[in-house]
Amino acid sequence: MSQLNVVMTAALVGPAYLAFLWLAGSTVGDYWTKGIACRWERASSALLSGLLAHALVASVLLAFAPAWTGASLWLLLAGCLVSWRWRRPTLRPLLVPLLLITGYSIACYLLLLSFHFGPARGNNVFWSIYNLTNITPGDSPQAALQAQYLLLGSKLTGVSEFALFDRPFLSGILTAGTLPAFGIMFEPAFYDYTDLLAFAYADLWITINVIAVLPLLSIIARFSSGRSAFIISLLLLASPFLVFNSIGLWPKLAALAIMCFACTQALRDNWLTAAFLSGAAFFMHGSFLWPHIAFCGVIFFYLVVEGIKRSPNSWPQAASVLATCVAMPALWFAAEHLSGGATPLRTYYLYNVPVAYGLHHGADEIAREFYSSTNSTNLMNLPWMNMIKGLLPIETLDLILNYRLSNEATGWRSLGETLFRTQFMRAWFALGLIGGVITWRGLFSADSSRWLPRLALIAFFILPLIPGLGLYRRDDHFLLPIMMFAVVPVLISFCIGMQTIRAGTQTIVAVLMLSEFLMVYYWRYPPGRYGGEFHAYYIAASSAIAAVAASCIVWPRMRWLPLPGMLRREP
C-alpha cells in the first residue's frame, strides 16, 4: 500500500468513529441529554455518552473475550439499531456540531500530515508529533501501548520498560475496542507499529480529543454573546493550545470534555451522575484526580449547606456523592495494588527522576537520593514558588530580564519560542500572552463575582493546587500540560474580559492574538530551506488557518461559520 493510500485510509477511521458515537450517543444517552437547550452542550453530551457506552462494552469483552474486543463497536451499534424503534432519537439538531468537529478534526489531521512530510519529519509519526507539539513520543502513543498490552499481554516482546498501571487506561480500552473493529490489528512487537496503525491511531485520537471543542464552545455561548462570542470561538479554534493538544494524541482533552459533561449534569442537579462522570475523567487521564476530588468536594459542600438550610433530601445525595468521589479512584488504586504493577511515573512526580529510573530502583533508594540533594527550606518554599510561576508568564519575563547586548541576536524565532513556552507551560496563558492579559482583566471584572465563575475557579484552579503543591516535589510542576482542567475557569474569565472591551478594540486584540498564534506555529517549523526536500505544506496550512480566522473577524460578511454568536437560533 502506497503512503498516500495509507494516510487516506487512516483518515477514514476518525470520522467513521465520530458518526458511530453520534448514533450510539443519541440512543443510549437520551436520558443524559434531555432538557439541554444549548446545541453545543447537547451534542457533546450525546457523543460522550456514546464514548462511555463503548468503553463499557469494550471493557466487558476485554475481561472475558479479549480476542473479540473489536466487536464491541458493532455490538453496541446493533443494540442501538434494535432499540431505534422504541427510542426514536433526534439526530438533526446535532448535525451542525457534528459536521463542525468532523471538519476540525480533518484539519488537524491534515496539519499533522503537512508537518510530518516536511523536513521536520521524525523517525515515525510520534516523533513528528513531538517536533510539532512538544508532547513526547512516550506520551502521544500511550493509549496504543495500553491497548496493545491489554490485547496481547504475555505474547508481547520488548515490553520491559512499560508499566500498565502507571496511568489509568480508559483510553487504552477505547483504542483496543476501535482499531481492531476496522481491521487494524496490533502485532506482538511492542511499540513497533505499521504506518497504517500509527496513522489510524493518530486520526482516531485527534477526533476523540476534538470532541472537547463542543463543551468549550458551550462555555463561550454561556459567558459571551453576539460578535464577541463569535470572535472568541474563532480564537479558540485557531489557538495552538487546542490544535497542538488535539494533535498530541494524549487523552487529556478527552478527559476535559468528560469533566465538562460532569459540570453540565451538576448544573441540572444530577449530582450522582456528575460525580460518576468526574471519576470517569480520572480514568481517562490520571491528572484529573485532583479536579475530581475538588469538583465532588464542591458538590458535597453545596448539598450539606442545602441540607442544613431547607432540604433534608440533600443529606442522602451528599453521602452518595462522597461515596462515589472516594470509590472511583479507590477502585483504581486497589486494582493497582492487587496487580503488583510498577508505577514509575509516581516517582517522577514525587522525586523528580526519569520515569524509566523508577522501573529499576526502589522507592526507598530514590527517596534517600532525593532528600540528600535538597534541604528543608527549599522543600517548604517549593509550593509557593510553583504557584507564583504558574500564574506569571515566566518565559516572557525571562526573555526580558536576561536581555543583554552581548547575547545572540534576538529575532522573531526567539520571540516565537518564548510565546510557545509561555502558552505551553502556564495555565493562565493557555490562549497566549495577550489572551492571558485579557483573562486577568476578566478575572477582576464585576461579572466574575457571579457564583458560576467563582465555583469554576475554585473547583478547577484553586482547590487542585492544594494537594498538587503539597505532594509533587518537582520544580515548576503545575504547568498547563498537567492542569488541563484549568482551561475551564481561564476560558470563562477570557470571555468575561473580552465582553468588557469595545467592538473595535476586540477586533484589534483578536488580530494581535492571531499574529501571536501564527508566530508560535511558524517557530515550530525548522528554519532554513532544504534543497530538493523542502515542502512548505505546514507553513501554507497554518497561514490559511490564520487568514480564514482573521477574515471572519475583520469583515462581518465573512462570518459564515456555525459558531456561537452567528447561529440564528442560538439558545
Automatic annotation (TrEMBL):
Keywords for the protein's UniProt record, in alphabetical order: Membrane, Transmembrane, Transmembrane helix
Protein name according to UniProt: Transmembrane protein
Classification lineage: Bacteria, Pseudomonadati, Pseudomonadota, Gammaproteobacteria, Lysobacterales
Transmembrane segments: 6-25, 46-65, 94-117, 169-186, 198-221, 227-244, 287-305, 424-443, 455-472, 478-496, 503-523, 535-556
KW Phosphoprotein (keyword) present: no
Transmembrane helix among keywords: yes
